[in-house]
Amino acid sequence: MLSFRFFCRAAAALCVSIALPCLAQPQALFYMTETPASVRDFLAHASQVDLLVPAWYIVDQDGLVSGEPDPLVMQAARTAHVPVEPILASQFANPASFHHLLQSPEAQQQMIAALLREARLHGYKGFQFDFENVAWTDRDALSAIVARAAAALHGAGLQLSIAVVPAAPGYSGATAFSAWNYSHWQGAYDLSALAKSTDLICLMTYDEDTAYTPPGPVAGWQWVTENLDYALKSIPKTRLSLGIPLYGRHWYAGAPKPNLPGAVLSPSAPKNDLPNITADSINGEDALLLAKTWGATVQWDPIDRSSWFWFYRDNVREWVFFTTGRSFAARYDLVKQRGLEGFCSWVLGSEDPSIWKVLPTHP
């Protein structure tokens, strides 16, 4: 039997010989954390990963970069010929700390020098910036630090990508939640400017619904397509990677929080304790086990193209929305239909194992 790799090469040669347009296979970018489950997942499926983006590095407000690679992962990546492009994340409690980095050329230079050093030491393809919780008023400053880092990395033969929060329609809506979401999350990304500097933009089309919202899909179809359409107005499709979540969320009533002195309450809020609706992340296998435990029926939403179920525990309804092989395949097909560079999935170790039946082995 001919191997998939041989078939891919033969098909590409045939397209060239008869001058047919050939669609490239979408690039499979997977995020990985340092948890054993995530590492084991990469080791088991490295042949289906085109680019590994591990969450290994963070930067502080003074430009100090901390982190290191996992030697076992690096060895496996080299053996499987999978390039590695680690995340550089900002982990600040508030936007003010990141603002300090954006306003300090010295701190930025420290950061960039560390990236160049780490890439040379470990043979990285480049880095991906994951800068979140950035004030919308720092939009231009964020574009500037990305452009500066990109110039330095490109000068060393390296690449720079960036993960961005979905931002459609590009402005704040009428609700207080929409204003908060835009000012703290969506509004900082100038997609046109970022597209000019970076080699790839990963659109994080997940976490549509969270602990801040009522129960709902992690990445509903309408929300995904609206944000994709919005991004494509500014980003070439050949440099856009669509986010496909591997995890789900489980909504339930958490233990009420103490009503602290000075807390601002709505007129209808309890006077003693505060509500604590929780939406924990849940992996695909755990979601299926939870459904089996409580006799829930996993259902398919044909509009949002998402899997979900509910059940009662202690007379309170709990909800789970999660990614199955079916919902993953629908979004993978969307990537192919739109001719995008590929997809980016958060995070290895959290998926329904059936997604691997959807993906080919890379040549």
Structure in words:
- The protein is an alpha/beta fold and 363 residues long.
- The chain has eleven helices and 17 strands.
- The protein has a ten-stranded mixed β-sheet with strand order 2-1-17-9-8-7-6-5-3-4, with helices on one face. The chain has a five-stranded antiparallel β-sheet with strand order 13-10-16-15-14. It has a two-stranded antiparallel ribbon with strand order 11-12.
- Strand 6 (126-130), helix 6 (139-155) and strand 7 (159-164) form a beta-alpha-beta unit.
- Helix 5 (105-122) runs parallel beside helix 6.
- The radius of gyration is 22 Å and the shape is globular.
- The chain starts with a helix and ends in an 18-residue tail after the last strand.
- The relative contact order is 0.13.
- Mean pLDDT is 92; it is low at 1-22.
Summed up:
With 363 residues, this protein is an alpha/beta fold.
Topology (SSEs and partners):
Elements: H1 4-17, E1 27-32, H2 36-45, E2 51-54, E3 57-59, E4 65-67, H3 71-80, E5 87-90, H4 95-102, H5 105-122, E6 126-130, H6 139-155, E7 159-164, H7 176-186, H8 191-197, E8 200-203, H9 221-232, E9 240-243, E10 248-253, E11 257-258, E12 273-274, E13 277-282, H10 284-293, E14 299-301, E15 306-313, E16 316-322, H11 325-338, E17 342-345
Parallel strand pairs: 1-2, 1-17, 3-5, 5-6, 6-7, 7-8, 8-9, 9-17
Antiparallel strand pairs: 3-4, 10-13, 10-16, 11-12, 14-15, 15-16
Helix pairs in contact: 5-6, 6-8
